[in-house]
User: Fold these one by one.
Assistant:
Number 1:
Amino acid sequence: MTAKELRNWLAWNVRGVRDHMHLTLRGLADRSSISFSTLARIERKRGMPTLDVIGAWATFCGVPLSVLFRDAERWVAKEVQKS
């Protein structure tokens, strides 16, 4: 998986969780303990978050980091098949 693919998946995942929880980006930042600006950059696909931020996202989602990356790899594989 490339950095771009991981960044795209994180953006998709953040937006999906936010929509599922019916939260604004600010509300998600408050609940996840990840700063608003960091979440905004992730959702807009601007830059790559640090491993600490990705780890904090995994913790917020209630999954181990390994599961988060496995899910990302599966998503990327599906996106490649679509194109």
Number 2:
Amino acid sequence: MDTLKPAKGLVESPLFKKSKDKITQDTRLLDDILEGLTLTIACKPDEFPLVDDLGTRTAKSKVVNDIPELTLYFKEYEEQIVLVDIEITPDEIPF
């Protein structure tokens, strides 16, 4: 049986906050989208793929209303998880 580890605290880096503000003016909807994803990141960070040798992992959201799929970049440390950056998933960028 898979036991749940206690959730780690999440910290938004300044770059994450800046990038998040650029995605949409509807911060309530964006926060709702990110709530479930960040809860999963906090509880099961090692289930997300590594993207570099520095321990950066990615997680992707689903498309909701007018907000396209998003990619979150994060790093796990002993006591916390740092949300490093967020962007519209490159395949989802409208031209």
Number 3:
Amino acid sequence: MAAGDEETVSKQIAKIQSDLDLHRKSASPKSKTSAKAPLYKETTKKAKKQSCLRKISHFLPQAVLSKSAICQHEYGCFENVVRKALKHFLVGFFIQVMLKNLMLLAKPAKLLKNL
């Protein structure tokens, strides 16, 4: 190699080394702050609920399934009403079933008669 080539190579190496040093210095505070932030928030997302009306959507009019401009619900006002009504119906039904079963446990003779 010629002397001029060796000088340019050594200058390039020195420049690359200084760039790496600057990069390491600037990256080290970032790595400390990123270590404090929890990683699970970045990698996991809340699963989006599927529409409960997706299986019967071909029976319903489009106006019922679409969201209006002012609707703040995830899938629309109608679906929100259906979800809440179903939830409250199921809660009430299970409370009723539990109360009936508790009454049967209080009177074992009726329990044996019903079997």
Number 4:
Amino acid sequence: MIKFKSIPEMFDKEKKGVKPNTLRKFVSSDVRFDDIYSGIEKEITIVNTETKEEFTRKITDITVWKEWCIISWKHAVKSEVNGKEKKNGQKCL
């Protein structure tokens, strides 16, 4: 799994699924991009820069535009029955 930091304003949108992606400038020395492009990494963890809270999601798309990389993921939803997070289409146990 790869990790990226996110400022609180963006973190909240990303976690809630309002913005289920992150835009990152490609840096050739950053090995995380090698792992993303090769398909090795299937999950992304986003970490709040202030609270250190984090969440992990399944990567659904990688879009490269010029020197930018847009990493998108499938938003998790909470079960109405027990409040646990689940990915769309999965049952919560």
